[in-house]
Amino acid sequence: MIVQRPVFLGSLVLGFFFFLFVNGQKCSKSSSLVGYESEFRMLQHQLRGVFTVLDDCSFRVSRFDMLSGSDVHWWGAMTSDFENMTDSGFVISDHKLNQTFNNQSFVVRLLDNVTWDSIGVVSVWDLPTASDFGHVLLSNATEQDSSSSKSESPPSESKDAATPGKSNNSEPFKAPTMFDNCKKLSDKYRLRWTLNVDEGYVDIGLEATTGLLNYMAFGWAKPNTTSNLMLNADVVITGIREDGFPFADDFYITKTSVCSVRDGFAAGVCPDTVYEGSDAVGSSVNNTKLVYGHRIDGVSFVRYRRPLNDSDNKFDFPVNATENLTVIWALGVIKPPDVINPYYLPENHGGVESENYGHFSLSLSDHVDECLGPLDADNKYDQGVIIADANAPLVVTAGPSVHYPNPPNPAKVLYINKKEAPVLRVERGVPVKFSIEAGHDVSFYITSDFLVENMTYVRCKSEEGIITLEFTRPLKPSCSHRDRPECKNMIDPTTPLKVIWAMGAKWTDGQLTERNMHSVTSQRPVRVMLTRGSAEAEQDLRPVLGVHGFMMFLAWGILLPGGILSARYLKHIKGDGWFKIHMYLQCSGLAIVFLGLLFAVAELNGFSFSSSHVKFGFTAIVLACAQPVNAWLRPPKPAQGELMSSKRLIWEYSHSIVGQSAVVIGVVALFTGMKHLGERNGAENVDGLNWALGLWVFLGVVTVVYLEYRERGRRRARNLSRGNWVLGNVEEDDSTDLIDSRGGFRDKDDEEGRNGGRSEIQLEPLK
Fold first, then answer.
1. 651 with 660: CB under 8 angstroms?
2. Which residue windows are transmembrane per the record (predicted)?
3. What's the pLDDT score for residue 479?
4. Alpha-carbon Rg of the chain, whole angstroms?
5. pLDDT, tens digit, 9 for 90 and up, residues 585-637
6. Alpha-carbon gap, residue 693 to 403, rounded angstroms
7. What is the largest CA-CA distance in the chain?
8. If we measure between CA atoms, which residue out of 629, 625, 582 comes closest to residue 748?
9. Global confidence as pTM
10. Which of 69, 99, 111, 164 is most buried, by the most CB atoms less than 10 A from its CB?
11. How would you label 468-483 residue by residue, b for 16+ Cβ within 10 Å and e otherwise?
12. 681: how many CB neighbours lie within 10 A of its CB?
């Protein structure tokens, strides 16, 4: 054992040196790319980082950010075009990237059979989706990226950000998404900047998880301002337009409102050029230079350049790079240009401070690195925007669902003008033409209700000549934007559901014509009561409810008002005829009211007080039922020649007021019933019925005015005849008003008192 130990140790030492020798041979630094450095070009998943070739078999990645993918690898190809990347690309390392990276640095070793000579592009590649998250171009590669879009390649880019793939002897490629500093403004908003004091400018990058047509604002407050920092502030408004191109404009704030121009004077949050008016032509008030912008994975990013000492002394402030200055920022909705306003104008940001807006003190010369990892948006896919044109039809086709965000992710979706499930922007009054080329297995319809996407278990089958369509839809919509009207489209199982239907006579794979489209359709909507379980279809206006409406009109529109008119205008008739008419009409009206109420309750299985019709109707019925009780409890009438008691006076006034109020409220219930009929049952003739009822009420009012006029004339004539009374005039009209001169009612008891009582007179001789 003692003799063999040195031999064993010696073997280990020799093996170690042999390993170093062999690996040293493999990882030499003979390639011309050694030392080459480049920044990654971001394409997806918020990828950022710096790429550096260390030797012939490894490279370093530093400051690396990326959202996780499904099966992500280091990928190599000769060029960056999609065809070459997919057909000729290959995995270059065992190092996998199936995680989220937060500003990390690491070394990656190439596979043994991979050399730098066989690689022109190093990419971060997702195998299942064949997606390029980002890449760097080596010195022997040329940029042929056919997958770039307008949002990724804006029209304005800086010179140093437009020439990738330089050799190791040239300046390294600087990606427009990389900066020296980064500050976290909120959980969804970041500020990045790179200071160039020698050139006298600062590059600023604004990055936020915000909506497509939202703005990102950043700027400097007026020096020495301690309150209301937005006023007189010098800001830059940035964002992404509908067509995917970025914008960045100088703004000056004179009022915390949307920019408006009146009588040639601008006020609000306005572009610098608006304040100049016609003098802005050829001027240099807008000194902000757009460098780059894109919208990827639900994150808007805009880079612009601002001079430190601006020549515009009216609306821009000089910035001292070494001084702490107050800056402001905001996120909000932007108003697109129109025929009157040619600018993108920010609207009120709203929200909570430190989430949607804020301010802080900033020195551009300080090194800040507060951004740990990439921004991760909840909704990473933006639906494309299609603007309808009256002169060109919109071509509707069907295709595979690639990015459609709403579950359950159907296999096939609609494309409009080759954009997957886009947002269609139309202008009111402008006709829109559609060219449907989607095939017969795809439905296309226009509706304001997007909740059809929530349908599940959709099935259509044909058995024994019977076609059955089945689907499941939630009663309450599952959407997050509760302020949207379609999110309020809930189904109440206790309320009749309006249903329409259509059927085709036959099916064909050929061209759609009038003959093979709808052959049988519902002539009018029908009602389905879901609570009955059998889903029995019913007509819009059910006969029983029609009878209910007619009976209520007969009671509140004819009988009960007629009873009141008889008590008011028929007392001049001898005897108690007016009283009998009053009693018969009121009792008949009450009986019909109760019958109509029972019909409605039985047909609807009860009623609730949720509608105004039920509230008014129930109030009128209660007041009407109080009248018989009130009449039965009336105090006795005063004897002939006695004054009326206070109880009798109160009763007479209350009886009159309650009865008249009941009729007025009952008529209101008739109108609300018509309105409820239109809303609930969709009756087509509701407007005509409303006009007819209104005309009837108008005629009733005219009749009352006429009768009141005649009653007052008759009363004046009676008063005159009393002043010229002589003995033997038995034709005197002893009629009275509803309330006589003593403040009391003349009812049936009064008539009996006048006929059976005695009166005394004093006679004087004639001279």
1. no
2. 550-570, 582-602, 614-633, 653-671, 691-709
3. 66
4. 44
5. 989 999 999 998 888 888 777 767 777 888 898 899 998 888 888 888 888 77
6. 56
7. 181
8. 582
9. 0.51
10. 69
11. eeeeeeeeebebeeee
12. 19
**For the CA atoms of 740, 744, 747, 753, what is the dihedral angle to 10 degrees?**
-90
Burial of 720 per CB tally in 10 Å (0-12, 13-18, 19+): exposed
User: Which two three-digit tokens encode residue 552?
Assistant: 């209520």
Going by DSSP bridges, is the β-strand pair 289-296/299-307 parallel, antiparallel, or unpaired?
antiparallel
- Residue 371's Cβ-count burial label (10 Å; 0-12, 13-18, 19+) is buried
Residue bearing tokens 């959709």: 458
Amino acid 680: pLDDT: 60
CA dihedral of 657, 660, 662, 663, whole degrees rounded to 10? 180
Q: Nearest to residue 386, comparing CAs of 376, 371, 396, 400?
A: 396
Taking the C-alpha atoms of residue 692 and residue 549, their distance in angstroms, rounded to an integer, is: 14
What is the spatial distance between Cα 252 and Cα 220, in angstroms, rounded to a whole number?
Answer: 10
What are the CB-based long-range contacts (under 8 Å, 24+) for 680-683? 680/495, 680/496, 681/496, 681/527, 681/540, 681/541, 681/542, 681/545, 682/498, 682/525, 682/540, 683/540, 683/541
> What is the rounded CA–CA span in Å between residue 66 and residue 134?
9
CA neighbours closer than 13 Å in the CB half-sphere of residue 250: 24
